[in-house]
Amino acid sequence: xxxxxxxxxxxxxxxxxxxxxxxxxxxxxxxxxxxxxxxxxxxxxxxxxxxxxxxxxxxxxxxxxxxxxxxxxxxxxxxxxxxxxxxxxxxxxxxxxxxxxxxxxxxxxxxxxxxxxxxxxxxxxxxxxxxxxxxxxxxxxxxxxxxxxxxxxxxxxxxxxxxxxxxxxxxxxxxxxxxxxxxxxxxxxxxxxxxxxxxxxxxxxxxxxxxxxxxxxxxxxxxxxxxxxxxxxxxxxxx
Length: 239
Fold this sequence. Notes:
Number of helices: 8
Oligomer: single chain
Strand content: 5-15%
Radius of gyration: 33 Å
Shape: elongated
Largest sheet: 4 strands, antiparallel
Strand order of the largest sheet: 4-3-6-5
């Protein structure tokens, strides 16, 4: 079985020799044996215990708390819970950092080729990126509510062709009209548009927005703030 000196143990665990000696004086890492010359010698079990202590210290647990945990009848159960908590916390931190990194990259890509970009431009892009998640959720909701309507449409058409019965198609027309009206009001009630000239967000009238020429992310509108007419970028405008 391997034996480790204080220096070897410290190196394997990434701590100082003084730290290992301090844990010995506190009684939480007593060496398995002493050499004839009085040197501390640590076993494989001591090495594993030291790694556990280092982990708990990285979680900012005080020495007294570590000592109490290691004296428990089943310290591994407590440590297992702490590991799960740490894993969850790190996963959330990584997710948060990744989200910020994605935003930075998106902003960087958006500024490429814009030699004359201004603080207003950066502000607009920040608002647009912040809105994307909410808009995506709304688009998904609209898609899901539209699936039954589409299914009813195909059923009514096929039923009409096969059975010669036309009234299910009339039902679909009525349902589609009601759904279209409600979903349009909901949609345009939860979006705004940023004017590229004055950089102000505004809400167009339902009629103007509905009939405006558009792309998936912009509509050709007249800004209610400055009067500019052109494509304005869609952002989330709900509560």
